[in-house]
Amino acid sequence: MVRRVRWKVHARREVGENLEITSKSYLSQQSRLLCGLGVDRLFVDESHFYKNLFLTTKMRNVAGLSTSEAQKSSDMFGKCRYLDEITGGRGVVFATGTPVSNSMTELYTVMRYLQYSTLQQKKLTHFDCWASTFGETTTAIELAPEGYTLIGR
Which H or E run contains 151? Predict the structure, then answer.
C-alpha cells in the first residue's frame, strides 16, 4: 500500500513537472513563431469560439457560470498576452456576429482577452472582484420540469 501511494505521489509530481515544462516550452515556441513571422496584429473572426477560458470563482449555484476550459482558449489567451506586450495593448481585434448569451463569464472572458492590462490596473483580474463591481447576484423562482426552483443569477 505504501509503495503504491509513493508511486502515485511520484507520478503526480512528474505529471505536474511535465505539464509545467510543456506549457513553458509551448508558450515560448508560440511567441518565437509569432515573433519570427513578424506578426504584430491578430484579427480573430468568430471570436465566440474562444469563450471557454478557465476561471476560478468562489461563487456556487449561480446559473451561467462556466468554469470549463478549452485548450484553444488558453492558446488564444497566451497569444493575446504576447501581442499586447509587444504592441502596447493594441495587437488583437475580435469580431463575432454572435451576441453574448446570458452569461457574465463571457463578458469577463472578452475583457481578459482584450483589456487584461486594464483589469490589472483596476485590480479586477479575479472574476469575483470583477463580478462584484459590474453585477449583482439575484435569486429568482424559475419553472423546471420537476417544479419551481430558486435559481441564483
Answer: strand 147-152
> Residue 45: phi, psi to the nearest 5?
-90, 150
DSSP H or E run through 49 = none
Report for 45-54, 64-73, 142-151: range of highest mean pLDDT: 45-54
Q: Report which residue type is found at 141.
A: I
62 forms beta bridges with 152
Q: DSSP letters along 109-134, please?
A: HHHHHH-HHHHHHTT--SHHHHHHHH
Rounded distance between C-alpha atoms, residue 102 and residue 150, angstroms: 17
Amino acid, res. 102: N
Q: How many CB atoms lie within 10 A of CB 50?
A: 21
Phi-psi region of 134 (alpha: psi -120 to 50; beta: other; left: phi over 0): alpha
pTM: 0.71
CB 62 within 8 Å of CB 152: yes
Helix (H) or strand (E) holding 15: helix 2-37
